Amino acid sequence: MHHTEVADLDFESWVCPVPLRDTPSVVMGHGGGGAMSGELVEHLFLPAFGTAAAAELGDSAVLSIGTGAATDGVAGAGTRLAFSTDSFVVKPMFFPGGSIGDLAVNGTVNDLAMSGATPLFLSTAFILQEGTGLAELGRIAQAMGTAAQTAGVRLVTGDTKVVDSASGDGVYINTSGIGVIPDGVDIHPRRARPGDAVLVSGDIGVHGVAVMSCREGLEFGTAVESDTAALHGLVAAMLATGADLHVLRDPTRGGVSASLNEIARASDVGVELVERDLPVPQNVRDACSLLGLDPLQVANEGKLIAFVPPESADEVLAALRAHPLGRSAARIGTCVADHPGMVVARTAIGGTRVVGLPIGEQLPRIC
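Given the sequence above, the corresponding structure tokens read:
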């Protein structure tokens, strides 16, 4: 095999296992939200950032700004803030049920919501390829504005850059967001406990299949539309039950599999799924079978996973099902003390299979 030499980089000084040590260049899998993404962060970015890096890295950071009270609905000193940033490179830019515009708003709103925050403000930055049609850009901007109004957030600052026609692919968008976390809410990936019920708010795998249906002329017989949606209202309905929500996560890149594995490792617990209880629509199941994909590893953009104490499971599940975005919510498994850090699924024939963390990305450019 031919290896390209890379000058001025000392790979031997990196504390870095496969695949980074044997991959001197960035590959698509590094952006897939799976094992390769984690290794890139752990073994390249964090050592490079040193003490400048936050102690904990998640979809959103929880920040305290001192002591005091909020006024006029704006965070005051002492308020806990959630802060998040995300970038969107989905291809194609328009897909059944949505576009890169509403995806960019909803994705960052949801990252904030997974810490229990009420989203307030977003920034937005565009990287535009020279030659992109202004009509297309206008549709994207309109979709962003509509999504922001629907979510009740304000787009307060932004930036625009243009790259030459050989350096981009249409429109890339970055959004960052700030939200306020209510007192008494403590949602964190390390809070999963044995006995917790594992809930999902609805059908899984829909977004990834919807985007894939636009590529290479694929048709799956029935229309599949993205589930892109802002989930903070759904989270608010769950919090209104008074339940102590331990963990929330929106299973985007890497799907349900990646999210559950990350939570299991963060909390040092095991997760046992019941395969027959997974809400996978038939059209998604058929498409995944055709493409050789695992629905558990396909991206979602309008679903959440919740780890809740067993005594609160029925009440929280009822609250989910009473909300328009949670009508198909289901209990899909249980948090256990056995096999810590591992996710397994009980199959329909009584066996057990390991649900592993994806290595790279089954479907690139999905969000």
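The two ends are 33 Å apart (CA to CA). Try to locate this feature in the token string yourself.
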